[in-house]
Amino acid sequence: MADDRTFLTTRQGHPVRDNQSMRTVGERGPATLENYQFIEKITHFDRERIPERVVHARGAGAHGFFEAYGTIGGEPAAKYTRARVLNETGVKTPMFVRFSTVAGAKESPETERDPRGFAVKFKTLEGNWDLVGNNLKIFFIRDAIKFPDMIHAFKPDPVTNRQEAWRFWDFVAMHPEALHMVTWLKSPWGIPANYREMEGSGVNTYKLVNKDGVAHLVKFHWVPKQGVRNLTTQQAQEIQGKDVGHATRDLYDAIERGDFPEWEFCVQLMPDGPNDHLSFDPLDDTKRWPEDQFPLLPVGRMVLDRAPSNFFAEVEQSAFGTGVLVDGIDFSDDKMLQGRTLSYSDTQRYRVGPNYLQLPINAPQAQCPFATNQRDGQMAFYVDKGGADAHVNYEPSYLGRGLNEAPKVEKEYHQPVEGHLGRYQPTRVSDDYAQAGERYRTFEDWEREDLIANISGDLKACPAELALRVVWHLWHCDQDYGRRVADGAGIDLEKAKALPLLPGKPAPGENRKGPTYTD
Ligand code: HEM
Questions:
Q1: C-alpha of residue 289 to centroid of ligand 1, in Å
Q2: What CDD domains has UniProt attached to this entry (predicted)?
Q3: Among 227, 258, 380, 443, which one is least packed by beta carbons within 10 Å?
């Protein structure tokens, strides 16, 4: 390896004896094309950037480990899941975590008001498990087909390249399901003090499956041992004036001084099935599962104890996806989860390249044997170890050569599915105002004040008819919420209240049950 060399070389291993001057004909003369050393250096530099992530471009990462407690709610974890990472004790599963903001570009300030991404890669003995979530436990929308529109509205204006409040609220006004997330986001919870003092959550609903093939619906959450701390807009502005990378700095500094951040990993569980008796749809990611009905049950802990040795190789090239599950953890029919699962690996094949899973940061851990018949493609630099019989890169083989299928699991989980193919209103129960109102009422006074000031400030920059509709929505979440925002933004509340229902949307408080096709 070239790593132990003490002098500079080219990538071809040739010593670089002068790194200060190009080769030229004479002191002032033209440069020549045969100057390999110069060309290698400059042309590699020309290619140093890969596309930044289309969302969550600004981030920081850290390595660590996960340890399972082996129990869930006082019972053996194996009762709920056959995933060894959750039911075996005494195993330190290596992990990599990437925290991020959503809408900002790669070098944007970490003080921005934005959900924080909380993406976790467990390198388990049974293969990788990625949990790609956020700090607010819910999301703006519940049908994946809306994601590009949402992100377009939240990212900069295509004409001016400026983020505009009116574009954000214009989208939200047409999506009452976003009001719950927006209520969190515009409060101090929209600016966590740093990455260590924030919660995390898988947001979407998954399933835990045990060895008998019995499934439970599950939500995953990270509870920080450091506690939760958020910032007001003013506090964030003061930090941003001095440091646009304060959260990365905070994370790295804590690890360096041995103050390793730690989170407890918890689940909320409910039996698999339609759960019709609930006042919300457990597959609707714009709703929280109330913790008094579905308590957080600890299953293990994660500790981050090592900063990356190179930002680009480990953080920028890391690739997380919701499709990356281990046996014993399964998909639910949450439509966002299903849509996301296509999107992540698709963008990574473009962003990093088709062999992105060969990179050390993304490959399974060394103790987990992996072997595919995938070959070639840009930047392939090894053939899987399991392909010892290098002639047979196909399966099955009559001669019994090459790789064989893995043994079957004892009881596969088979979800019954029946229905009419069509486009549906996404949930069977959609009171999109109730949880937003509850959230408003449970905030502390200073959080409510910051929330009101932030939304009122935004609405002053919005066209009058849009501001009226936003106040109408907020008033239906909670009358005090709507009134205070109207007062703060100088909006006539009575005029807002008199607006007709939004065409095509359920009335506030209305629960829709049964199929609602749109075509
Ligand atoms: C990143 C798509 C919803 C959390 C990304 C990326 C894409 C994407 C394309 C860039 C990935 C990369 O370049 O490696 C989508 C789509 C969604 C969706 C299509 C909805 C249908 C969500 C939701 C959450 C979320 C609901 C939170 C629970 C994240 C996080 C990252 C990310 C944390 C950054 C991962 C990292 O650190 O590399 N998303 N997303 N996304 N998304 Fe989503």
A1: 21
A2: catalase_clade_1
A3: 258
Residue 148 Cα: closest atom of ligand 1: 19
**Catalytic annotation on 420?**
no
Asked if residue 56 has its Cβ within 6 Å of ligand 1, the reply is yes
pTM, two decimal places? 0.95
Whether 147 is in the pocket of ligand 1, judged by its Cβ within 6 Å, is: yes
Q: Is the CB of 53 under 6 A from ligand 1?
A: yes
> Could you report the per-residue pLDDT of 75-129, keeping only the tens digit for each?
999 999 999 999 999 999 999 999 999 999 999 999 999 999 999 999 999 999 9
The number of residues in the chain equals 519
Q: Which domains does the chain have, with CATH numbers?
A: 1-48 (4.10.91.20), 59-358 (2.40.180.10), 427-513 (no CATH)
| 94 vs 307: CA distance, rounded Å | 13
Q: Among this protein's residues, is 473 annotated catalytic?
A: no
Q: Is 344 annotated as a binding residue?
A: yes
Give percent helix, percent strand, percent coil of the chain, each to the nearest 5. Answer: 30, 15, 55
Residues 6+ apart with CB under 8 A from 374: 384
Q: Residue 200, SS3?
A: strand
